[in-house]
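Team,

Forwarding the record for the chain on the shared tracking sheet. I've put the sequence and predicted structure together so nobody has to dig through attachments.
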Amino acid sequence: MQRFDADLKWTIRTVRSRRVPISNVALTLALDHGKLTLSPLNFAMARGNVSSDLLFDTRQRPSLVRYDIRLSPTPLGRLLAGWGVAEAGTTGTVKGRVQLTGRGDTIHDSLATSNGRMAFILPAGSLWTKNAQLAELDIGTFVQKMFEKELKEPVRINCGLIAFTVRGGVGAADPVLIDTSKNVVTGRGGFSFRNEGVDMAVRADAKTFSLFSGQSPVGITGTFAKPGIDPISGDLLARAGAGLGLAVVATPLAGVLAFVDVGDAKAAACGPVLAGARASAQRTVKGDKRDDVGRGTTAKAEDGRGNPGEAKAQRKKFLGIF
């Protein structure tokens, strides 16, 4: 890259994509004595626009790489239609920004050493899924959804924030916090650009009383290329064991008590959420500091091989698309 200079303007009308429609790509490339910039690199995606500025400076060794990617408000229904989200009935949108700086002579190396922040904001709206795996886990309704393969009404989102602070190539939830009409969804743990592993713990606490609530973790594990969902956790098994024990020593009705959710989840103040604030700035609607969101660190330190630590926080089924 240091042996020649270059200047390029490139436009693309449409891009063939299996899941997300992409069109109107506009790229301006400049290479000057080993300093490559893609600025701007813009394209339309699902009735939203992505604007980005990328820098690859090979004059420094290893190369200095900066990513600044911005997503304008984009309809969730169109964006996620390929993953079982229905456009009809989904009025929610998402906007976000990714800012990362790292060093390396490949994309992987630059991300594996990167520092920065990733944040995606969900304003008020609704989300209608066609796949039961994308729905909240509340055993009383989950079985019905599982057999019918669709929701009878959309999930009402008041506000939401999916954000990660990245340090040394490891991203930690900071925070994952989604306030819906019935639940408060929180997440801890994170991911690693080093080995492309994911290890998160997500749960949805009810705002109102629920007689049959799994109150169980949902683990998001695996890799970027092949993520996995694990709704059966130690917490859920422990609750099932407790329920069985109560049923044996007392009555079958007593066994149900292990699955009762008193509905004490504290609704989120949407101001800090919509501002994309860090976990430390998140509050309840009463102004109290939240103690149920990540604090900018993974649940457990990485091991020496760069694997993300196992998320020890409780997990519960949530809107799995996130």
